[in-house]
Design brief:
The complex is a heterodimer of chains A (160) and B (606). Helices cover 49% and strands 23% of the residues of chain A. With 160 residues, chain A is an alpha+beta fold. The longest helix of chain A is centred in the first third of the chain and has 28 residues. Chain B is α+β, with helices and mostly antiparallel strands and 606 residues long. The radius of gyration of chain B is 29 Å and the shape is flat. The two termini of chain B are 50 Å apart. Classes of the chains: A alpha+beta (160), B alpha+beta (606).
Chain lengths: 160, 606
């Protein structure tokens, strides 16, 4: 038994963005291993196969992870709460009631900007971390943030 | 009223004309810290000057410098340090101003970088008055005002260091005693009866009228004081600290003080003793020092410990022998209570009570107790009584049944999950033994043959495995959750078992987690987020249906609409997963706002 998935998916462009994100990590790792193999060892075959396998794994992850992550990431804003699901290995559902929201922020990284995406981050008074809606279309994110701000300003108190 | 947006940060504050006067504050009156602060700075500068002087003496005598020169150098260095400390303190004093208006507490500070902090008075949660020996002699105290802010930029508290004890007491009462609830309580000066033993040198006032005592020190509790890890490592730790401290001034404890040549006879005599006796004596001496240290710390920290409920709607904790401390907590901001049982203390039948509250810091450097500690180590029954007094109905006792506010156990899969960790750890331990043997470190290769080393590694691995399983069993038995009319209950922890009663009204969101492994084992972790205490309190590895129903019932209407319309769990399967403690007989309530099947049909099996 688990909570039902939130209704909305991230923007499809998110897959592209996350792919770039993963590639920034995966490609240097694979490339580094290959370069180290060529320059630092006397190139035994078994190690070559190992390095090749590692490189293939890295590149496969670059392709697979963003898609898997996209399938898991969902969000929803109801009358009463902000609700997200994320994570692949550790599936995480987060819910923050509207009445407890303190701040609403939108943020766009440099790569995100190329894809026209934004994150919306909703914080409560808890130190446990914010609820983050990742990779929305830029205009949608701005609209959503505005709407959330209006709603939360209308509800007094934040239970601190 | 605050808006949900952070409208209370640093900023220009114009005082409304005719801001109401509260308990003798002049509106718009900026006040400064006490000037005696300079004396405190001077006194503490000696703590730096002394080791410097020792280092100078050592360095110069070694180089054969005349005595007059050495004295002059020491005096010069000491004067320089003293002057530096005092000058800095004067600058700090001049830069620091504070005021309490009808609505806000404001603090201007910062020698180099000026800072103006302004916090609405309704955000003040705690007041912590501390007076160490130096400040006590001078009649001073440090007041720290805890706010509901989470450390966004820097500290979440305003610190006034130092002000007079009278002023500290005045501010404490002014800021935390709601005037509408107890008009008299906002004027502590009127209620103060001079000459009471505590107020004579204390950092807090005597108990005023209407104060209800919750707990006070019973000397029998001191038997629980040595039940900490420090009792076992205390002697060694002390030696380490002494070595480090002497090292700073250029003295090597083992080479210079316990000089092998000077004490040659002693060393030789000791070397003649059998090793087992030496080891036993060493362990005993360590234990003795550790226990003595633990007892001294208990006396210093908890001397004249009192926990009272004040008529102004606050809890007041007072304690301390040399350093006096009083902590005031606004009860309306208390979000629950926690009973912590560290392993050793638990074996001795003891526990401690901490507050789940906003505005309390973790223990800082040089502090023996964390700020949220409400009691010293006390007998378990007493801990439960205090928890109940502070936040009724408190934390359920060991015998309570799930249906009567007790805790419900978790599926056995949670134990298997914990026990599984023992395997890699045991394997690693065995590998370490083999590795150490192979590398020849510690002379192990000379002590053991290769065959024996293999057996030793296997033995270590098995021992670690068994210990791991034992710990897993303890951790599993700790797991539990429950719900009372007021609290969400959660318990976990093997080494430190913590039972938290978190106010359901203080829950400001949920974080539900399920890893791939948890999914396969049919477990789920539910974390309640809150503004108070650690910010998040978790129900670890519960049965998913159980965990979700708990969250739904704890805060009705929040999670309910997000749970599947048709519950997929089989009652039988659920019951089988929850071992040891039977399910609640009365079942869970129907969630509001959705068409759940009748509660009894889903929950009453087992």
């Amino acid at each position: 038994m688990e909570p039902r998935p939130p209704r909305n998916l991230p923007d499809p462009r998110a897959v592209g963005w996350w792919t770039v994100h993963c590639a920034l990590l995966g490609v240097p790792a694979a490339g580094g291993a290959a370069v180290a193999y060529v320059t630092l060892t006397d190139r035994p075959l078994w190690l070559g196969l190992l390095v090749a396998a590692f490189a293939v794994l890295c590149l496969a992850l670059v392709v697979v992870v963003p898609r898997a992550y996209y399938r898991m990431s969902r969000w929803e804003v109801t009358e009463d709460a902000v609700y997200t699901r994320s994570g692949w290995i550790v599936r995480t559902w987060r819910i923050a009631p509207m009445s407890r929201i303190q701040t609403v922020d939108t943020a766009r990284g440099p790569v995100q900007r190329l894809f026209g995406l934004s994150d919306v981050t909703v914080t409560t008074a808890s130190a446990a971390g914010p609820v983050k809606i990742e990779a929305l279309d830029h205009h949608l994110a701005a609209e959503l943030a505005e709407r959330l701000t209006l709603i939360t300003q209308a509800t007094p108190g934040d239970a601190t | 009223m605050t808006t949900p947006r952070r409208a209370d940060g640093t900023g220009d504050v114009t005082l409304p004309a005719g801001a109401e006067e509260v308990a003798g504050t002049v509106p718009d009156g900026w006040r400064r810290l006490e000037r005696r602060s300079h004396a405190v700075a001077a006194a503490y500068s000696l703590a730096v000057a002394t080791p410097v002087a020792v280092a100078i003496v050592r360095g110069m005598t070694g180089a054969g410098v005349a005595v007059e020169l050495i004295v002059a150098a020491c005096a010069g260095a000491a004067l320089l340090i003293l002057a530096g400390a005092v000058v800095y303190d004067v600058l700090r004093w001049r830069a620091t101003e504070y005021r309490v208006t009808g609505e806000r507490v404001e603090l201007r500070s910062g020698v180099v970088q000026r800072r103006h902090r302004s916090v609405p008075r309704e955000r003040v949660r705690t007041a912590d008055v501390t007076a160490d020996p130096v400040r006590r002699v001078l009649g001073l105290a440090v007041l720290k005002i805890g706010t509901g802010e989470h450390a966004g930029e820097g500290a979440s508290e305003l610190s006034l260091d130092p002000i007079s004890r009278r002023e500290a007491e005045r501010l404490r009462a002014l800021l935390l005693h709601a005037p509408d609830r107890a008009p008299g309580a906002a004027r502590p000066d009127a209620a103060r009866s001079p000459g009471t033993a505590y107020s004579a040198d204390g950092a807090s006032s005597p108990a005023g009228p209407g104060t209800v005592p919750i707990a006070s020190l019973a000397w029998g509790w001191i038997r629980l004081a040595p039940l900490t890890v420090w009792s076992f490592v205390g002697g060694g730790a002390l030696l380490g600290v002494a070595y480090k401290a002497l090292d700073v001034v250029g003295v090597d404890l083992f080479q210079d003080v316990l000089d092998p040549d000077r004490f040659e006879g002693v060393w030789r005599g000791l070397a003649a003793w059998p090793p087992w006796l030496l080891i036993t004596l060493g362990v005993l001496a360590n234990l003795l020092v550790g226990v003595a240290g633990a007892l001294l710390m208990f006396v210093e920290s908890w001397w004249r410990y009192r926990l009272d409920r004040e008529p102004g709607g606050t809890l007041l904790l007072r304690r301390g022998l040399l350093t006096k401390r009083s902590v005031t907590l606004a009860e309306s901001r208390l979000r629950g209570v926690q009973i912590a049982e560290p392993l050793l203390l638990r074996l001795g039948g003891g526990a401690r009570v901490t507050a789940v509250a906003t505005g309390l810091r973790e223990a800082g450097a040089g502090e023996s107790e964390s700020a949220d500690a409400l009691t010293p180590p006390v007998p378990l029954a007493e801990a439960h009584r205090i928890a109940r007094e502070i936040s009724p109905p408190g934390v359920p006792g060991p015998g309570a049944l799930p249906g009567e506010g007790g805790l419900r156990g978790h599926p056995v899969a949670a134990r298997r999950r914990r026990a599984r960790w023992a395997w890699p750890v045991a394997g690693a331990a065995g590998a370490v033994v083999l590795g150490v043997h192979a590398s020849g470190a510690f002379g192990l290769d000379r002590l053991l043959s290769a065959g024996t080393a293999r057996w030793a590694a296997a033995g270590v691995a098995v021992a670690v495995l068994l210990a791991g399983w034992g710990l897993a069993a303890v951790a599993y038995r700790s797991l539990g959750h429950g719900l009372t009319s007021r609290h969400l209950l959660a318990r976990s922890g093997a080494v430190v078992r913590r039972t938290t009663a978190l106010d359901r009204t203080g829950i400001i969101g949920w974080k539900i987690e399920q890893s791939v492994f948890q999914r396969r084992a049919g477990l789920m972790t539910v974390r309640a987020t809150t503004a108070a205490g650690r910010g998040v309190y978790s129900v670890l590895d519960a049965a998913p249906a159980d965990a979700l129903a708990l969250a739904d019932r704890a805060v009705p209407g929040l999670l309910g609409p997000l749970l599947p319309e048709q519950a997929t769990d089989e009652p039988g399967g659920y019951g089988a997963g929850t071992s040891r403690i039977s399910c609640e007989p009365h079942g869970h309530q129907t969630r509001p706002g959705r068409n759940a099947p009748p509660a009894s049909s889903r929950w009453s099996s087992t």
